[in-house]
């Protein structure tokens, strides 16, 4: 399958979503306890309200069993998310740390997700995949692959406005028919009269580290677009 449309669930976002789920459960328990105190005319005791083991036990359960979610909803939780790290050899450890898993049924007869795609070039190993049901679905990232985690578009919009971008609300086609349209994450946000200067400025800001190095800067001269 095309790697341009793939997204990876990494350890950080997975742990963050699990913590968010457990924290909501903790606040819900505190709210229920507070409601009972009000109904029964009892004094609110913070020590009894906060169950200190809710988050700890939830994290331990998910990391120990691999079922990602609340323990009481184990049937609907994702299975096999956490695994015991392979320490057999240094190479096997590196391989296990860079392993990816395509979450589709192993018994399906669809061949396309298992086959090698042109976009896999330089991103995944074309040979290292298990035999049997998981063939082509479990892949290993190459050692030099870098995963972008995504950044906020607010700094980009701020810099574009600082360097002469006219907002889309003020755009009048008859006043500037030859201006270049500016897109951020596929959304048309404004226009610019000096696209070559804007490209040079944005690339200089990226090299200096003022904007994220993951931001791609493209100027389409034929379509008069800056993305």
UniProtKB/TrEMBL annotation:
Gene Ontology cellular-component terms listed: DNA-directed RNA polymerase complex
One Pfam short name: RNA_pol_Rpb2_4
UniProt xrefs under InterPro entries: DNA-dir_RNA_pol_su2, RNA_pol_bsu_protrusion, RNA_pol_Rpb2_3, RNA_pol_Rpb2_4
Record GO terms (molecular function): DNA binding; DNA-directed RNA polymerase activity; ribonucleoside binding
Keywords, alphabetical: DNA-directed RNA polymerase, Nucleotidyltransferase, Transcription, Transferase
Gene Ontology biological-process entries: DNA-templated transcription
Domain annotation RNA polymerase beta subunit protrusion: ranges: 9-56
The EC number(s) this enzyme carries: 2.7.7.6
Domain RNA polymerase Rpb2: from-to ranges: 83-145, 182-226
Family as reported in the entry's similarity comment: Belongs to the RNA polymerase beta chain family.
Protein name: DNA-directed RNA polymerase
Protein's organism: Metschnikowia pulcherrima
């Amino acid at each position: 399958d095309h790697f341009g449309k793939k997204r990876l669930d990494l350890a950080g976002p997975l742990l963050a979503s699990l913590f968010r789920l457990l924290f909501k459960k903790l606040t819900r328990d505190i709210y229920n306890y507070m409601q009972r105190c009000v109904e029964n005319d009892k004094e609110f005791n913070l020590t009894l309200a906060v169950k200190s083991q809710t988050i700890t036990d939830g994290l331990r359960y998910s990391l120990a069993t691999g079922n990602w979610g609340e323990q009481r909803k184990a049937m609907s939780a994702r299975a096999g998310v956490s695994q015991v790290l392979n320490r057999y050899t240094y190479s096997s450890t590196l391989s296990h740390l860079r392993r990816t898993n395509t979450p589709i049924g192993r018994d399906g007869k669809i061949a396309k997700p298992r086959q090698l795609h042109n976009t896999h070039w330089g991103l995944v190993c074309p040979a290292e995949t298990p035999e049997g049901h998981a063939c082509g679905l479990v892949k290993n990232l190459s050692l030099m692959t870098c995963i972008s985690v995504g950044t906020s578009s607010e700094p980009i919009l701020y810099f574009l406005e600082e360097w002469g971008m006219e907002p889309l609300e003020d755009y009048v086609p008859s006043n500037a028919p030859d201006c270049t349209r500016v897109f951020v994450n596929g959304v048309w946000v404004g226009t610019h009269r000096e696209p070559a200067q804007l490209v040079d400025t944005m690339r200089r800001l990226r090299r200096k580290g003022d904007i994220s190095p993951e931001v791609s800067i493209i100027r389409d001269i034929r379509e008069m677009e800056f993305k």
